[in-house]
Amino acid sequence: MDRDCCNWDGPTTRLFLDLCIAEKDKFNFTNQGLTRDGWHNVQRSFKELAGARYTNKQMSNKLQALKKRYRAWKDLHNTSGPGRNKSTGGVDFDADWWDEQQTQQDAIETERLLNRVVHNLLTLTNWIFCSDPTKIGDHSCVPAV
Predict the structure, then answer these.
(1) Which phi and psi angles does 60 have, rounded to 5°?
(2) Is 20 exposed, middle or buried (0-12, 13-18, 19+ CB in 10 A)?
(3) What pLDDT is recorded for position 2?
(4) Which residue of 5, 19, 55, 72 has the fewest C-beta atoms within 10 A of its own C-beta?
(5) What values do phi and psi take at 26, rounded to 5?
(6) Neighbours of 100 (CB within 10 A)
(7) In this entry, which stretches build a coiled coil (predicted)?
């Protein structure tokens, strides 16, 4: 295996995270990450269970990348419109998001209504000023303003 590059598939990543969690439960974890003993235990267990040998640097890089992705997901989850309803497990939106959506829908409906009114007025004007009923709908009957 190339020591500079390693591939982390789903099951391998899951195993790595489970081993890190086990070390955290043993208090071999600080705010920065795993302690020296924690890394040693993770490396040893990882080699036994996965048959793969990664360096401390590779595992540290993977753990930092996963922490970074988690923080980005958490920030996005907490600041964007959709959230997760813990009781139903479904997607949930806050009241501000719904208000914004309703305002957008109201604007769309108002525009549709105005378009219908303008269309009806043009049709009515055409009907009033057109002497030939077969040309209703043809704008050639509408007088210039």
Answers:
(1) -65, -45
(2) buried
(3) 47
(4) 5
(5) -90, 5
(6) 13
(7) 49-76
* Pair of tokens at residue 9: 């598939």
Task: Give CA torsion, residues 54, 57, 60, 66, to 10 deg.
Answer: -80
User: For 119-137, what is the mean pLDDT?
Assistant: 67
User: What is the Cα 53 distance to its own chain's centre?
Assistant: 34
**Nearest residue to 8 (alpha-carbon basis) of 50, 56, 39:** 50
Residues in the chain: 145
> Tell me, what DSSP letter sits at residue 92?
E
What is d(CA 84, CA 21) in angstroms, rounded to the nearest whole number?
A: 24
Tokens of 101: 């959506």
Cβ atoms of 18 and 10 within 8 Å: the answer is: no
Place of tokens 């190339």: 2
Report which residue type is found at 21: I
pTM: 0.52
